[in-house]
Amino acid sequence: SPGRSRAASLGRRPAVVDLSAMWAGPLCARLLERSGADVVKVELAGRPDGARRGHPEFWRWLHDGQRFETVDPATRRGVGRLQRLVEGADIVIESSRPRALRQLGLCAESLSGDGRTWISITGYGRGPGDEELVAFGDDAAVAGGLVATDRGGDPVFCGDAIADPLAGIV
Predict the structure, then answer these.
(1) Contact present, 26 and 100 (Cβ < 8 Å)
(2) Disulfide-capable partner of 78 in 8, 25, 72, 89 (CB 3.0 to 4.6 Å)?
(3) pTM of the model
(4) What 3 state SS string does 58-115 have?
């Protein structure tokens, strides 16, 4: 019926495939998991989520209750597995440049819709001229105007990587 997700129509928990890394996307996945979604965290063989190098307690908090899959993008089998996971998802979370996704045979524009929600968390968007730009929390915050000034009037960060949790929550 109109307005109902594929998962609700089938009487099951929404299936989330989290292709993102670091903080913003995984926080979004965490909130969806805490809201009842079935989340699969997908990492590429040879390129694990960079947050694994951080504090283990934070990693566990972000990913508690999720399933994990590692796929090898250098093999036909790995790419096929990734494509099947995405095709079976109700919600896909990613934070990659469109070129990187296309190299894996994934195109947000063709895979979104039909009851699937595609959440693309990028620093500068997916539009022409912006789609290849990479952002990290602090530079994205400054670009978005989240900057304060010190007593001398010089710009300073107003929070450590504040753009990441804000993006993940939104």
Answers:
(1) no
(2) 72
(3) 0.83
(4) HHHHHHCCCEEEEECCCCHHHHHHHHHHHHCCCEEEECCCHHHHHHCCCCHHHHCECC
Structure tokens that stand for 87 in this block: 């095709």
CA proximity to 121, closest of 90, 104, 149, 96 = 96
pLDDT of the chain, 170 residues: tens digit per residue: 445 566 655 678 999 999 999 989 999 999 999 999 999 999 999 989 989 999 999 999 999 999 999 999 999 999 999 999 999 999 999 988 777 888 888 877 777 777 889 998 887 777 777 767 777 767 777 777 778 889 999 988 777 677 788 888 98
CB atoms within 10 A of CB 13: 16
Q: Which two tokens stand for residue 92?
A: 């896909």
